[in-house]
Amino acid sequence: MKPLRISLQRISNYRFSYKLGTGVFIAGQRQANVANDWQLPGYVRWDAMAAYYFKVGKSRLTAQVNVKNILDKKYFSYADQFGNPRFDAMPGAPLTVLGSLKLAY
Predict the structure, then answer these.
(1) What is the pLDDT of residue 10?
(2) From edge to edge, which strands make up the β-sheet containing 96-104?
(3) pLDDT score of 8
(4) In angstroms, rounded to a whole number, what is the distance separating the alpha carbons of residues 83 and 5?
(5) Alpha carbon of 45 to those of 15, 29, 42: distances in Å?
(6) Are 48 and 19 in contact (CB under 8 A)?
(7) Helix and strand tally (H, E) in the chain?
């Protein structure tokens, strides 16, 4: 019976790395229209990202995941200042996950 051989040379051609990030977006109470007669409430949103990349030869492949509004908070991102702003307050995005692949060569 022949012994099993694993070539580490092929495996050593791949280099792996990762990146993690997080951030908090804070918006205080702000005026919702030019007349300054009503306000949008303040809010706090927590976002994060993780990226994993490896190099194969001269190319680099990056897989990344971004998560926005991790705690799925309800908030208003902005209001239309030129229409009837009481009906034009725009809700912010709910929990959102976005994935991407990037190949650099």
Answers:
(1) 47
(2) 14-27, 43-56, 59-68, 96-104
(3) 43
(4) 72
(5) 34, 14, 10
(6) no
(7) 1, 8
Q: How far apart are CA 23 and CA 21, in angstroms?
A: 7
Phi then psi for 10, rounded to 5 degrees? -65, -45
Give this prediction's pTM: 0.72
Asked if residue 46 lies in contact with residue 67, where contact means CB atoms within 8 angstroms, the answer is no
Give me the amino acid identity at 93.
A
90 contacts 78 by C-beta, under 8 angstroms: yes
- Taking a C-beta distance cutoff of 8 angstroms, is the pair 30, 61 a contact? no
Is-contact 46 26, C-beta < 8 A?
A: no
- The low-confidence residues of the chain, meaning pLDDT below 70, are 1-16, 82-87
Residue 11: phi, psi to the nearest 5? -65, -35
From CA 94, how far away is CA 67, in angstroms rounded? 10
